[in-house]
């Protein structure tokens, strides 16, 4: 009886969260932490924890599809994970290999036209894992409705360091002028980069840090971050909806700040310059409130000053 009541309350809360959402992120990145601690708490081996986490990963793909999230990046294996005991690394590589083949052959992946890509220092992975990566990427190469990026042997600092070395080599050869280096120059060197900037980073397991994950791609300082206590195998759809709600709150705050800055800028210039500047602001900042009504309010405020 108590369980039924709890399930009913949980379902009501889930539906309430769904109704509260007015926008979803385009790109979600997940640090799947807590598999080993989940297994330890249940008196199981680490392999059982990783397999339980893989089930959450499959559910996560469905949740993203249901909400219309276009890109998902999973932190499956970091550069630091190479320091784990050999037996545990082998278990992880077994599971990664298995899941890559499974996803590549999954009917839903092909129905939804999901493109699978691996990012990271792939040359450090076992050959059998690299073969599975090649298979998954080849099977989904032509798709562009959704993206699933699997970070394997990934470290953000290593990625940026490699890009910096490539640029330095180009400058030394005279192929690139140091004065011409800009954001686009760096992004060109980030091979197999995610298709979109990251809007929301989720970390499970209780730790509040982003662990060298996608530092360049996290949309500057605008990406929302959601930390939660459940271990990855326990992460539920309600937790996911709460994470999306955090993104929504962050986005609304960001929009208000941008609008306030734009209005302050409009007030600081003369009437002739204001119309030219307004056109530029509207074309470059589609998400902020620069409606005719808001601009009229600015004109009234200026007239009153």
TrEMBL record:
GO molecular function, one term: magnesium ion binding
Cofactor(s) named in the record: Mg(2+)
EC number: 2.5.1.89
Coiled-coil ranges per UniProt: none
Reaction(s) this enzyme catalyzes, per UniProt: geranylgeranyl diphosphate + 7 isopentenyl diphosphate = tri-trans,hepta-cis-undecaprenyl diphosphate + 7 diphosphate
CDD domains given in the database record: Cis_IPPS
Chain residues that bind substrate: 34-37, 50, 78-80, 82, 84, 203, 209-211
SUPFAM superfamilies recorded: Undecaprenyl diphosphate synthase
Active site: residue positions: 33, 81 (proton acceptor)
Keywords recorded for this protein, A-Z: Magnesium, Metal-binding, Transferase
Subunit structure, as described in the record: Homodimer.
Described purpose of this protein according to its UniProt entry: Catalyzes the sequential condensation of isopentenyl diphosphate (IPP) with geranylgeranyl diphosphate (GGPP) to yield (2Z,6Z,10Z,14Z,18Z,22Z,26Z,30E,34E,38E)-undecaprenyl diphosphate (tritrans,heptacis-UPP). It is probably the precursor of glycosyl carrier lipids.
Protein family: Belongs to the UPP synthase family.
Protein name: Tritrans,polycis-undecaprenyl-diphosphate synthase (geranylgeranyl-diphosphate specific)
Organism: Halomarina halobia
